[in-house]
């Protein structure tokens, strides 16, 4: 059986930097309030006067990944696009990226698993490669959050957290034993009300009232999201280490979802991983 490995990495961020002080001019908040709760100092956001979007940011990240891997876009067998902020309700951003890059008619699929989208996408790609069905898979994660957030005091628990940007990886088979070793996935739909967009789907279609009542903005129960994030991230990490006969002492680095410094700190503490082994760039992201 093949082992899948990442052979190319790409990333893209909009040029516009939005600091905590910038947000304090739009809502009742300040740098101290945001930093204490999230660890974030600044984030990148798309300039509203530009033509950038979820798919176009993904294109730039994908082009970098392909260039670094020295692989042609025509050799891509499958596109997996992870996003919760697609350009359109349908078709998916994966086929939009395919068209923008002129990649022909290779299959493309979107994954809508929010914060865990990249991990789900990685698992899907890994299985396709292991079975030998596809050889070169382009996995893209891209989010245009700022286009759909409430930049008022009412929405500050969400709007101070998220920014815009994209990342991409190219995966291919490797028979030498190096690559993706294992993935552990799970979900719990009973907590769906803790972090959601209430309107816009078939359950609550868009109406004048849903727009007026701001039901199309992201809602978050911050306290309970924090609790579940810490317990599930630490437990999921523990589960995958156990089934691979590893302990926290074997971990060289913990690379966690960069959403909240307090969540990452609490998770690493439960896992017994020292601070110097925890990679974090949540306060400020530098392009390199």
In short:
This protein has helices at residues 20-24, 31-38, 54-69, 93-101, 117-130, 156-159, 208-212, 222-242, 261-271, and strands at 3-12, 17-19, 42-44, 78-82, 108-111, 137-144, 164-174, 195-197, 218-220, 254-255, 278-279. It has 288 residues and is α/β, with parallel strands linked by helices.
Outline the structure in words.
The protein is of the alpha/beta class and 288 residues long. It contains 9 helices and 11 strands. It has helices at residues 20-24, 31-38, 54-69, 93-101, 117-130, 156-159, 208-212, 222-242, 261-271, and strands spanning 3-12, 17-19, 42-44, 78-82, 108-111, 137-144, 164-174, 195-197, 218-220, 254-255, 278-279. A 5-stranded mixed beta sheet has the order 1-7-6-4-5, with helices on both faces. Helix 3 (54-69) packs across helix 4 and helix 8 (222-242) runs parallel beside helix 9. The longest helix has 21 residues, at 222-242. It is globular, with a radius of gyration of 19 Å.
Task: Detail the topology: elements first, then pairings.
Blueprint: E1 3-12, E2 17-19, H1 20-24, H2 31-38, E3 42-44, H3 54-69, E4 78-82, H4 93-101, E5 108-111, H5 117-130, E6 137-144, H6 156-159, E7 164-174, E8 195-197, H7 208-212, E9 218-220, H8 222-242, E10 254-255, H9 261-271, E11 278-279
Parallel strand pairs: 4-5, 4-6, 10-11
Antiparallel strand pairs: 1-7, 2-3, 6-7, 8-9
Helix pairs in contact: 3-4, 8-9
């Amino acid at each position: 059986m093949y082992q899948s490995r990442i052979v190319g990495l790409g990333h893209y961020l909009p040029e516009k930097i939005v600091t905590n002080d910038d947000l304090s001019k739009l809502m009742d908040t300040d740098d101290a309030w945001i930093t204490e709760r999230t660890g974030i100092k600044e984030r990148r956001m798309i300039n509203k006067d530009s033509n950038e979007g979820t798919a176009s940011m993904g294109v730039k990240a994908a082009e970098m990944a392909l260039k670094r891997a020295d692989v042609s876009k025509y050799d891509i067998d499958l596109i997996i696009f992870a996003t919760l902020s697609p350009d359109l309700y349908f078709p998916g951003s994966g086929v939009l990226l395919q068209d923008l890059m002129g990649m022909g008619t290779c299959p493309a699929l979107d994954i809508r698993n929010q914060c865990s989208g990249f991990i789900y996408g990685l698992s899907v790609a890994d299985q396709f490669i292991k079975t030998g069905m596809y050889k070169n898979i382009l996995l893209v994660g891209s989010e245009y959050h700022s286009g759909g957030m409430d930049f008022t005091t009412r929405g500050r628990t969400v709007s101070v957290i998220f920014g815009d940007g994209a990342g991409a990886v190219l995966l291919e088979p490797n028979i030498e034993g190096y690559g993706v070793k294992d993935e552990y996935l799970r979900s719990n739909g009973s907590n769906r009300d803790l972090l959601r967009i209430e309107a816009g789907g078939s359950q609550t279609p868009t109406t004048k009232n849903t727009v007026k009542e701001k039901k199309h903005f992201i809602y978050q129960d911050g306290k309970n999201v924090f609790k579940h994030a810490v317990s599930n991230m630490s437990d999921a990490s523990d589960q995958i280490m156990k089934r691979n006969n590893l302990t926290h002492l074997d971990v060289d680095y913990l690379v966690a979802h960069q959403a909240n410094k307090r969540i990452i700190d609490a998770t690493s503490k439960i896992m017994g991983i020292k601070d110097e082994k925890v990679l974090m760039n949540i306060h400020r992201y530098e392009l390199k």
